[in-house]
Amino acid sequence: MTKPLLNRPCGGRFGDLVQSIGATPLVELKRLSPKPGVRIWAKLECRNPTGSIKDRVARALIEDAEEKGAIKPGMTILEPTSGNTGIALAMICSRKGYPLKVVMPESVTAERTELLKMYGAEIVYSPGDLGSNGAVEMALKMAEADPSVYMPYQYGNPANPLAHYNGTAPEILEELDDVAAFVAGLGTGGTLMGVGRRFKEEMPDCKIVAAEPMQGEPVQGLRSLDDGFIPPIIDLSLLDRKIFVSNRDAIIWTRKLLDEEGLFAGVSSGAIARVAVRIADELDEGNVVFIVCDDGWRYMSSGLYTKPVDEIAELESTLWW
Amino acid sequence: MALVRIPPVLRPSTNGEREVTVNGSTIGEVLGNLAEAHPATKDQIFAADGTLNRYVNVYLNDEDVRVLGGLETAVGEGDQLVILPAMAGGR
Fold this sequence. Notes:
The complex is a heterodimer.
Chain A lengths: L25 E3 L9 E7 L9 H15 L8 E4 L3 H13 L3 E6 L4 H9 L3 E5 L4 H15 L13 H17 L5 E5 L4 H13 L4 E7 L27 E5 L1 H15 L5 H16 L3 E7 L16 H5 L8
Parallel strand pairs in A: 2-9, 3-4, 4-5, 6-7, 6-9, 7-8
Antiparallel strand pairs in A: 1-2
Chain B lengths: L1 E4 L13 E4 L4 H11 L4 H4 L10 E5 L2 E2 L14 E7 L6
Parallel strand pairs in B: 1-5
Antiparallel strand pairs in B: 1-2, 3-4, 3-5
């Protein structure tokens, strides 16, 4: 005898993989909650087609350029990225017929390089010791020198936060009537700015909290502090808190997600979870929502999940974020 | 009094020291005293108008002081300050 479908809603029906981006599950992580009245929810962005939240951003960047008439099939897209945006762009560009060139630091994990090649992207390496700053600088110069390429530039393109304002945020609001705090990683700033703006409009008391990575030894590549970089889309006034997470804590919490909740996530999600629990600890009641940016598969070669923590935390030349 | 952790990019200006103990009851006082003890750090930490240099992030017990009270943020006994350069994040 057939049984009725119990697990609703199902993921939906779509005519194409790009259309299926988003509509990710929101899952309660009960074991992480420090007290009964505070509920912690993970938005599983790792469930997007290429396995990260960047699918939303990449689709928004390309569709925005199409709508503006800035690109047409056959035109090369160029973007600085240390991985996930590149992987997402690569899938979307290959579906839509745009050759893709990504500029990324040579210190990213092998899996990310493989994924980019798999989807047909061309990779240009920037010096590993200059980290993401070096990749951004190199890509900006390349785009300036060659007017035939189009650079969406996720760090400065309003389509990036809009993908979250119109996508990630309303999806969470569909499921929860009220959110006491929202926690995400501060990378390009897209997630925090987009969701933050939408949540502040709908729930002015919601705390918007940034979890910020410890950048490791690549910092040594800086000649002076004037070589620093702040993504132009970031508006600090939207943030209520901005909390720094060491590599060590990020790794410990990535493992906690796996051990206590069975969630196989990337290291930035571990850092975000750590901050979410810290904020949850300060509340008496309410919902705390945090973002699981990607899954753990693309970090396997680093030994992140099995080697002694001290050994991994020392691997500061690897870009985790 | 606070323990200030110095990033690699600033260590040439602190005789290679990674951590420095500095007096002060606000972030502004602590950083001002650091700049007095190690003058080469001054132009890197502060902008010409005396505000925090745009590309410097200062964390008080892991929290960015720009989102707290800026240079006016109170510093307690045993607090830890981390100075870090602003870097591109995201992927």
